[in-house]
Amino acid sequence: MTYDVIVIGGGPAGLSGAVALCRSLRKVLVVDAGTPRNAPADGIHNYLTRDGVPPAQFRAAGRAEVERYGGELIDATVASAARNGELLTVTLADGRTFAARRLLVTTGLTDELPPVPGLRERWGREVLHCPYCHGHEVRGRAIGILGSSPMSLHQALMWRQWSDDVTLFVHDAPDPDAEHIERFAARGITVVPGRVAEVVAEDDRLTGVRLSDGTVVAREVLVVAPRFLANAEPLPSLGLTATENDFGSAVPAEPNGRTEVPGVWVAGNVTDQMAQVISSAAAGLHVAAQLNMDLIMEDTDRAVAELAAAGR
């Protein structure tokens, strides 16, 4: 069977795009590896009317909408993709192959955390990165900023909005210059030099960090600045790779989601590292509309050519 569009990735961008395409009467297949980025979080936020909804519940509702409009879903991992004449084919890890006129890649990104023992285990709970995603839920608590890049100095000032008890652990970040020191002092932000050796937890909750000299500083929340790395597979097999930037990597595309590889479109975190759930869903809709118009023009050009051939 040949689909109009195969969507690779079943997160907010992929499911939103699939719904829009199904509502446009397109034959759509969604291939979902089942590893959502926000799985550790208790709920999604800043999504109007969906605030606090658990990620698994949101995902299940999105999948049900795709199926309600006639879309198909497969729980699998795409191993590779290739061009076969006018079609694009995807091969799954189990060897199955499917073909489509277009690919919409919404595989998201991976958060690469600093290599500090205990950090990954608490990711998405007390180890956070986005104040707009989780700041309100940890307001007023003792917050630590784990320095990993120049962005960490910015994070310290930002998170001060949600708590008056903020400590910056310099760790791998640049030492604050005179201007930052002045700003931190004005806002009551404590700066701790040296490196963090590990995250300390008791009774399954974060209680602080241990410095390399053995000192333990009590904290309830730890903020990090991950590197956002695009989940670019299976794009390299099509000749398209993610490009490095200051925040990690992303797949380059035009504002409408079209990539430099004909027939391949992208949406969500795989191309927009800062997109939250609501903006990824919006991007999925936007790109799907552009992609559908691309198919309409192809169908129209084919019809015109067939009519001209018949007239001869």
Low-confidence stretches: none
Class by alpha and beta content: alpha/beta
How many helices does DSSP assign? 6
* Overall pLDDT confidence: 96
CA-atom Rg in angstroms: 23 Å
The percent range for strand residues is 25-35%
Query: How many extended strands?
Result: 19
Q: SSE order in H/E notation?
A: EHEHEEEEEEHEHEHEEEEEEEEEH
Major pleated sheet: 7 strands, mixed
How many angstroms separate the termini?
A: 32 Å
User: What is the CATH topology classification name of the largest domain?
Assistant: FAD/NAD(P)-binding domain
Q: Helix amount, in percent?
A: 25-40%
Give me the CATH architecture of the largest domain, please.
3-Layer(bba) Sandwich
Query: What's the CATH C level of the largest domain?
Result: Alpha Beta
- So what's the overall shape? elongated
Count the domains.
2
CATH superfamily of the largest domain: FAD/NAD(P)-binding domain
Please describe what this structure looks like.
The strands form five sheets. Strands 1, 2, 3, 4, 5, 6 and 19 form a seven-stranded mixed beta sheet that branches. A five-stranded parallel beta sheet has the order 8-15-9-10-11, covered by helices on one side. The protein is α/β, with parallel strands linked by helices and 312 residues long. The radius of gyration is 23 Å and the shape is elongated. Helix 1 runs parallel beside helix 2 and helix 1 packs parallel to helix 6. The chain has two domains: 2-111 and 227-311, FAD/NAD(P)-binding domain; 114-223, 3-Layer(bba) Sandwich (FAD/NAD(P)-binding domain), CATH 3.50.50.60. The chain is built from six helices and 19 strands.
